[in-house]
Amino acid sequence: MCCICISDDPVEDSTGRIKVYLQGVPFRTTMMHAPCTSFTSFLYCLGQFIPCTMGITQYMLRRKVLEGDMGRYSCGQGYFDCLCFKAGNCCESSCPHVCAFLEGCFCNCIAVSASRMYIQDQFDLTSDKCDYRLIRIVSNILIIIILINYYNYDQEQLPSAFQLYLWCSRNFR
Length: 173
Prior knowledge:
Elements: E1 25-26, H1 39-48, H2 54-65, H3 96-106, H4 108-123, E2 125-126, H5 129-150, H6 158-171
């Protein structure tokens, strides 16, 4: 199995700020086996990695998650509301298809996570070990991107950026 060095333990949050899916029924198909279950699943996975098809892939996936009823669509399905962004205030009711496509193009991580969390809530499903690993990989990649952008590709400061990354990865698990 790949990514052996990355923890597959569930993320625990005693403050309640992060929704954790520790209870519930496991998915019938694990995330590692999902791309191989059907040709459609393979196309969804492949479409996610091709930049020009990510928007349509996420749109089709969200339609499938909502069982074709785009009247239930909202940006981020309401899971990612913050001060500057609230689901329901982005014209979703008047043009949900366009909004879902744009969400898939420009907020792909939010689109993927919202579909996943919506399905988990609807069917009381728990995350699998691969899910926890992927969350940690994406988080680490984002930290690296932020640090590199913060130091503006200054070659002399990259060693200190790497040290800061190591400190963050140890202290913010």
